[in-house]
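Below: protein 1.
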Amino acid sequence: MKTSLASFAEGISKLGLTEVGYAVALLWYFDQEQGRPELRPAYLAELMHDLSLRRRVNITRLGRQLLANRDVIRGKEMGTVRLRLASKPRLSYRYSEITGSADPGKIHSHVIPTALFENTRPYLEALVIQINGTYQGGFYDGLRGDVAVEFWSACCCSRSNGRQKAKS
C-alpha cells in the first residue's frame, strides 16, 4: 500500500527528528515508495519546507551533514545522496509503521525503549532489539534475563549520573 508523501510527512513530524533526520526519512520514503534512491540535498530541503517539517534549510549545511551521517552515501550522479544499503533494514523497521507496511513480527519496546539507543552504536541497537525480543517472543539464543537487566541498569546509571554504580 502506497502512502502519500503528505501523510508520511505528518507521521515523521511527530517523531521530533532533526533536519538530517527528516532528510534521511524522506530519502527512505522516496527509495521505498517511489523507487527514487538518489536525491539532491536541495530537493530534500525544498521538500522539508513545502511539507512544513522545517523552516528554510541551508542547502550546503544539509548536504555536508547528510554526507557525515552514517546512513547516507554519495549517489552515482554528481551532487546526489542515497541511503547506505546496510542502513535500509533499520530504517524500514523505524518508518514502515508510518507508511502502513509494518511487519507483523515487529518487536515492541517492552523492556528497553529503543528510542534511547537510536543513532548510537549499531551493536547497542541490535542488543536492545534482542533484549526486547527475548521478553516479547522468547528468543532463546543465549541472552539471559540477568544479562539484560544488568545491561539496562548499567545504561540507566551511566546516562543519569555518569559514574554512579548500579545497585543490586
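Below: protein 2.
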Amino acid sequence: MYRITTFATDGTQLGFFLFMEHFSSLAILSPEDPTRPCEAVIASVCLWGCHLSLPNSPFRDIEDLVLKVALYQRSIILIDGESNPRRILHSVQAEVLLSYYFYRRGFLIEAMNHAAMAASFVTVSGMHGILSIDQQPPRELEVLADGRASYLPAPRNVPETGELIDGFWSVYIIANQLASASTTAICADIFDAPHLLIGCPWPLHQAAYRDVCSYHRSRASCSTRYRS
C-alpha cells in the first residue's frame, strides 16, 4: 500500500488514468475478488512506487524484482485476468505505465514496444471513438494463446467513461512523445492508419467527471483527428 501511496502523487503525470481513489480501495482486496484490479496494473504501480522512493528506501532494492513481476503479469493479463471484465482497460494502463517507466530510464526501444501495444489495444477495442456519433460496438480482441476472446465492455457510469477518455489520450500522448524522441517510433504511426478517425472527446480533470451528470455525444464534435 505504501508503494501505491508513493505513486499516487505523481500518477497522472505518468499516464495513470484510472481513478486513483477507486483503484487504491480495490487494490487491497483479496486476489480472488473479481473487482480487484488486474495484477499487471498493481505490479506496474508498485514498480513506479519503488522507483520514486527515496534513494535509501528498501523499496529501491527490490525495483528490479518488481519489474520482472510487472512484465510477467503484463504478459498473461488477458488470460489470467479473464474474470475481470475491465482487463482490456487494465492492459492499456499497464502498457502505458511500463512505457513511461522505460522512457524515464532511457530504454526507448522497450518504451516504444509498450506504447505500440497500448496503441493497438485502444484502436482495436474502439477507445479512440468513445462517445463519437460514429462509435461502433465494443470489438473483441482474440487471445491467441488459448483461443478465447476479450472485449471492452461499455462504461456503466460517467467516471468509467472518463477513464476510457483519459486512457485513450494517455496512450496518444506517450506515443507521440516517443515519436518526437526517435525517428523509428512506430507507436504513433498506428494513429495515422487509413480510415482511423479519432472521435474521442477532450479529457477533463478526474475530479470533474464526478460532477458530470450526463455526457452528450455532441462533445465529440470538440475532438479532432490530427496527424503527428
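The longest helix spans residues 158-181.
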